[in-house]
Amino acid sequence: MPTTQEIIGQDLAHLWHPFTQMKLWPGEPPLVIERGEGNWLIDSQGRRYLDGCSSLWVTVHGHNHPRINRAIAEQLALLDHSTLLGLTHPGAARLAAELARLVPVDLDKVFYSECGSTAVEIALKMAFQFWQQSGRPEKKRFLALEGAYHGDTLGAVSVGGMPLFHQVYGPLLFDVDRLPQPHCRLCGLGLSHPSCDLACAQALEPILRRHGAEVCALIVEPKVQGAAGMIVQPPGYLTRLAQICRRYDVLLIADEVATGFGRTGAMFACDLEGVCPDLMCLGKGLTGGVLPLAATLAGQRVYQAFLGEFEEFKTFFHGHTYTGNPLACAAALASLELFAETRLLEHVAVLSGLLARGLERIAQMEHVVEVRRQGLMVGIELAADKDSGLAYEPGLRMGHQVIMAARGRGVVIRPLGDTVVLMPPLASTPEEMEHLLMAVEASIAQVTEGRA
Ligand code: PMP
User: Fold this and answer.
1) Cα 151 to averaged position of ligand 1 atoms, centre (Å)
2) Is the separation of the CB atoms in 290 and 334 below 8 Å?
3) What is the mean pLDDT of residues 144-167?
4) What CATH number labels 31-61+343-449?
5) Which residue out of 225, 284, 287, 374 has the highest number of ligand 1 atoms within 8 Å of its CB and is therefore the one to mutate?
6) Mean pLDDT, rounded, for 88-98
7) pLDDT at 106
């Protein structure tokens, strides 16, 4: 077993970390995570940390779950990998049937890939090609929200709306029309909810009235814009978008990569408003957060447009080497069984109540300007001045300071700028939730108020 110093040495010499200014890496000695046990991560020194970010929003039933491990081991003894190009295998077929049963009606065709970005990329290409093959080739434009995040591949970046991440690639991207961000506290339309009558969603109508004939699809993170800082949409927002899309025959793509699999309190965020999109992107929690697998689901209308004789070339010419990997499918099937057996959504409802109560305390703090929550997705926004909402100087990296302070209290979390994000595993216990809340409250007090 290499020593911690040897691992860090190899890391510093060769690893380029995601979303990381490598000039500042690691700053302090990085945690070397060696083991996972339930909802805890254990470092090379044997220290334990509650996984308060679900290892980047993926962990559902906890790490090293014996049931999921066994399913993977059993699958490994049978078949490690086989392609879905021209062949099939039991896990991919069974999982597709399960997903079709779980998601809102009408989405009964499942196309696999490996990550959320590719699930989005596939949805965009499917939407585009659908219209090309449906006698409406002029429908080429995409619509997305300000502050959207849909992944890091170029199509996903095109529909993304976070200048910090996306601006530099501008010349490489396709044009996208934007809807205002549904962020009530900072309403760009200067209105307040509910008297606004969802004007931010209604803004879609004039755009489609004028340009609907050229618009291919609207992509949206349903109910919560995650990477933008857990921006929770007002009730009815999603429904309104769906209604307007229908009226103007524009496809609705629901990017449920972050919100899917119980995270928002329902199995899918779309379920919260009974919305049935035309395409749905799934990833992250699909395998319980154990192996990389993603899926893009389509309904019959989209699917039928791709059927034809060989020489018509209506095929969806897309597919990744590891598409539908059997080990990942086995993990996903075991995870879905656990959802039912452990009645996980009921547990999430209990945890959501605990979180809501704990967060009331945190919302009162001197430098907490807003707490946003939907199910087990939480954003705690810090500001230099609570009343005016004046932000901290970015160089202070207050969010980063808070998460480093939380580490000292046995919690791993990640910020989005100065928004502290909490994303505990769905199977967290009430005691673990309390530990998370206490550690976060104390860390915010320490960093923003100088309290020990
Ligand atoms: N869509 C959404 C809504 C996401 O939050 C993310 C990742 N945070 C992605 C897509 C991209 O997923 P991945 O990182 O697995 O490519």
Assistant:
1) 5
2) no
3) 95
4) 3.90.1150.10
5) 284
6) 98
7) 86
Q: Counting every residue, how long is the chain?
A: 452
Measure the CA dihedral 326/157/376/440, to 10°.
120
* Helix/strand/coil for 296: strand
**Angle, alpha carbons 115-118-121 (nearest 5°):** 155
pLDDT at res. 383? 98
In order of 320, 350, 376, 430, the CA distances from 433 in angstroms are 38, 11, 10, 5
Q: Three-state SS for 49?
A: strand
Q: Which tens digit of pLDDT belongs to each residue from 57-83?
A: 999 999 999 999 999 999 999 999 999
Give pairs for 46-50: CB < 8 Å, separation 24+.
Answer: 47/410, 48/410, 49/407, 49/410, 49/411, 49/412, 50/410, 50/411, 50/412, 50/424, 50/428, 50/432, 50/435, 50/436, 50/439
Identify which of 150, 219, 374 to mutate to test ligand 1's pocket (most ligand atoms within 8 A of the CB). Answer: 150
Tell me which of 19-33, 321-335, 411-425 is least confident. Answer: 19-33
Residue type, position 383, single letter? A
Boundaries of CATH 3.90.1150.10 in the chain? Answer: 31-61+343-449
CA of 195 to the centre of ligand 1 (A): 33
Nearest ligand 1 atom to alpha carbon 284: 15
CA dist., res. 148 & res. 241, Å (int): 15
Residues 361-365 have a mean pLDDT of 98
Q: Which CATH number fits domain 69-341: 3.40.50.620, 2.60.40.10, 3.40.640.10, 3.10.20.30?
A: 3.40.640.10
The angle at the Cα of 15, spanning 150 to 82, to the nearest 5 degrees, equals 60
Q: What is the pTM of this model?
A: 0.98
Considering the chain, tell me which residue range(s) the CATH 3.40.640.10 domain(s) occupy. 69-341
Residue-level pLDDT at 416: 97
